Amino acid sequence: MEIFGVSLPGLLSQLLLGLVNGSFYAILSLGLAVIFGLLNVINFAHGALFMTGALITWMAMNYLGLGYWWMLLLAPLVVGVFGVVIERLLLRWIYKLDHLYGLLLTLGLTLLIEGVFRSIYGVSGLGYDTPELLEGATNLGFMILPNYRAWVVVASVVVCLATWYVIEKTKLGAYLRAGTENPRLVEAFGINVPVMVTLTYAFGAALAAFAGVLAAPVYQVTPLMGQNLIIVVFAVVVIGGMGSIMGSILTGLGLGVIEGFTKVFYPEASSTVVFVIMVIVLLIRPAGLFGKEK
Amino acid sequence: MNLKNLAPIGYGLLLLALIAAPFLGAYPVFVMKLMCFALFASAFNLLLGFTGLLSFGHAAFLGGAAYVAGHAIKVWGLTPEIGLLLGTAGGALLGLLFGWLAIRRQGIYFSMITLALAQMLFFACLQAPFTGGEDGLQGVPRGKLFGIISLQSDLVMYYVALVIVVLAFLVIVRTIHSPFGQVLKGIKENEPRAISLGYDTHRFKLLAFVLSAALAGLAGSLKTLVLGFATLSDVHWTASGQVILMTLVGGLGTLSGPLIGSAVVVMLENKIGEFGNLLAALTSVEWFKTLGESVTMVTGLIFVICVLLFRRGIMGEIIAWLASRRASGSRH
Amino acid sequence: MKNQLKVLALMLGAAGLATSAAHAQDKVKIGFITDMSSLYADVEGKNGALAIQMAIDDFGGKVLGMPIELMSADHQNKADIAASKAREWIDTQGLTMIFGGTNSGTALATAKVASEKKRVYINNGAASSALTNEQCSPYTVHYAYDTVALAKGTGSAIVDTGGKSWYFLTADYAFGHALEADTTTVVKAKGGNVVGAVRHPLNASDFSSFLLQAQNSKAQILGLANAGGDTINAIKAAKEFGIGKTMKLAGLLIFISDVHSLGLRNTEGLQFTTSWYWDLNDETRKFSARFFEKTKRMPTEIQAADYSATMNYLKAVEAAKSIDADKVMTTWRGMKMNDFFGSGQLRADGRYVHDMYLMEVKKPSESTKPWDYYKLVKKLPGDTVFTTKAESKCPLWK
To answer: Which end of chain B offers a freer environment for a tag, N or C, measured as fewer CB atoms within 10 Å?
Structure first.
């Protein structure tokens, strides 16, 4: 069967792969949106934190013999702690300043982190094997899908929905949201806002690292792996609406699917389609698809 | 100690140093590259430091114009000065298009639109056959200026480039000190107030954007002529990041800031290996030798330090320090 | 006064750092620019510099009474960095000759600089046949292999065994395009057909969508018009997605470092063309043992070529009694070369014509020791496998 001159299996297989990519976009943009929504900081270092998660997963395997399943828990923890350090040491000086400085500081941080790893490991990819439990593939008829990729989609969606639930539907999330709108008032109620802020950044970092662990068997683990993802993730957050959690999740997944679709008809444009969409969205709906005009 | 008198003396000395540089043993091609980036950073600063608009996609003008000029000189066989003019016009045109779209939004959204448009241009450059894709546009001849003066010699090219860059810089200086420049500063400080005073801020912002883009285009075209090629690195978003770094390190909103900033960043990239070897020789610490491979790391460190401690950039801090000395009433 | 002084000091400091060392032509300086840190780092990289240094040392460290110095740099697969470095070395360091490395885009750019500045330019790592064809120059020596030889060797062999419909996975730059084009010519000439092609960015991180497109084309053969890290990742992903069940993989440029990285299980049965293998004969084994001692890896064809080319260049300099590029090239073209790498002569278009070998990767059961990966299928005589005079567009070879 053919649609627009392309076979149905061809279309479906690309869409499914697109969904896998979309899962990464969703988790990463979720972390970015959480940090921006609650800290008002544009965390350019998100890509580097993602890369750090993947890289320490590789290092754990190669130097400590620690496997994938351990790292799913440990990597976010380690990078989360690193996030605490970054926030306490660097970020808290620039909250009162223009957005620009937050962006530049985190950009500098990115270069620093990437540079350190780059000088140790070079730029070529480090191989990471798929964990045994998830090896193998399932024949879906229109394509053979490696089981690991299905796991990526499932894990991402679960984590994203859990995060959304905590932030939008629980008391803790309510404190977080209130804390951004009016920190003084929330502090007056006895909530320790600075600690909340630090933990929020750490959480965002942990999310990025979690995505990194998921990515290690799929993409090449290299110090530069965050670089090209980060601008796409920015675009996703902007399209979704900069403070909106659900906006980021849906836009992330949606973009992955659209990219997959583009790959069928005009493969070279797949990495640029997000920017075209962003310009269109920003011109029509200035605050993004799900955002609120501040 | 009048600040106003210091500046011309400073620039005069700089100009003298630049004129003498090839005879002092400097590698002309390297200094020309420095000058192009200094112009690029100054053009960017016109938009950011003086108008308050942060463009994330300025590389689009640098690289886009580089390709236009390269193509005009290599394929159409035009003389260098026409090539440069076409490149600059290309930059201006792109600036008009990007600016018209981006200025409709404010703040971070303005910046993101410039990024998106620059990425689309990157893609266009990657795909278009005439740019040579990943291989770049190579072998752009220096040609003969006005059809008479051959630019083949590095020395001749150097002085021609020096004249062009100085003239362009004077355009920026003139713009800042003109009534137009004053309005831009007013817009940067408080746009609603400027609007209430009756200024069509949209038009002013767009004009500033186009001017900045045109001069960035001139820098890119000149770079193509000097080095003989235009590649995707010129339109990649990391080049946009670099110019932001240069302006930040040098000092936003100062005229000399971008000059210092670009010098620091370009030298960092090219000479850090030698600097590392020097440090290693001085301190006998072997690790310094690997500094050459750690450009990214050092650049990142500088970024972080600048944002935290030297927010006003090198020149910004110097000027502020001098001003505070005057204000505290010390006599000389 | 302070800020002018600071500016002046900065400019003088800049001038200082930008200044060149005194240009004495009392040393022979060899410049080596290749990919040292990215996807091609293993096929040549730092160990290529090591091979060149080995040759310099074996030659005696001196030629025509002048000491030989080797400078190396990483071009990061960027043509502008390679060309700028070459130009800077020539202008400020008194560079005598340039060794170009992997990545055809950088090779073509550097060859232009070498031609403009009249320096001998030897390239082993890059494959694009354009170096000795459309873009030939009297100073370019293309030593090890090129896309035409690879196409004629591997392409013919596969079409002859029944692989008639092809789909290409191509690295989107000079090398990939050249390899795809040259192989397409061979396939069509032998009655096969090319169903389609998909271009991937250099150093792509994820090949899954490209491979699925290839699979959907229903072609018999998937031609991998890429190299190094890209080929390794493409083969890995192909295994993951079960591409091998419906298509046969044709590696158009494979290095022993790739096979070592992937393992025999993933590469057995792969047929490809190479210019050299460490286990061919006693001479090759002797060189390889020395190389292995220093690096703990067997040399790739490029690294062996680096050594061999350096030796032959220095011999040519000695014979010409000069380091002037024109004199050296004229002398070199008249020399017959014969060493552990190969035997043959330099052609007028800069091509070194020597035998190539069609190899097949052994099954894990057939391999008896580490690095014992290939078995020889056929020897391909030089004059059958490189560009012929009729096919050449080089004005230097008429």
So the answer is: C
